[in-house]
Specification:
The chain folds into 2 domains: about 60 residues, no CATH class; about 100 residues, Periplasmic binding protein-like II (D-Maltodextrin-Binding Protein, domain 2), CATH 3.40.190. It is built from 6 helices and 8 strands; from the N terminus they run αβββαβαβαβαββα. It is elongated. This is Transcriptional regulator, LysR family domain protein.
Length: about 170
């Protein structure tokens, strides 16, 4: 979601809270970093060619998945990934991270997914993380809400708990 769409939701449509990948800048809106999502390269535990010692060249010889998204934040990350893995072979594209992670689990495809998604599914789907020399780009999430919403005690406590959690 773009910052403009988020601002419209908050100001005109009276949404209480919006989470975006881009900061919302407005006089009537409070926006702050919420969480940074680390991305990781994964494959099936049963992948026949990828090991803990696989080189960049061996990784690049494999086929990859790719997330289809129109989100500006995801597009920026994908451009960075494209620079890092230039000319990689994309064999499967999907608009759902769950579809992508399930495809990786049952094929020899490699894919880049949020670490939290990998971590929560790795045992069940028999996935493994592929260690890289340099980390993949992360996605920063922002939380935005109307300043006037802090007048509501319940909402104010909710924001306090969010801040404590992250």
């Amino acid at each position: 979601m773009s910052a403009e769409n988020a601002e419209e939701l908050l100001v005109h449509r009276k949404a209480d809270l919006v989470i975006t990948q881009m900061p919302v800048i407005s006089r009537s809106v409070i926006c702050m970093p919420l969480h940074t999502i680390r991305n990781t390269l994964i494959c099936s535990n049963k992948h026949p060619r990828i090991t803990d010692n696989s080189t960049y060249e061996q990784i690049m010889a494999e086929e990859f998945t790719q997330l289809i998204s129109k989100s500006a934040g995801v597009d920026d990350i994908q451009m960075e990934i494209d620079e890092k893995f230039m000319n990689r072979k994309i064999s499967f594209r999907g608009s759902s991270l769950l579809t992508i992670i399930n495809s990786i689990a049952v094929t020899d495809l490699l894919g880049i997914v949020p670490y939290e998604l990998y971590n929560s599914h790795r045992d069940f789907l028999n996935l493994k993380e592929i260690k890289l020399e340099h980390p993949l780009p992360s996605i920063k999430l922002y939380i935005s809400y109307n300043k006037s919403s802090l007048n509501n005690l319940v909402f104010s406590r909710f924001i306090d708990r969010l801040n404590e959690s992250f």
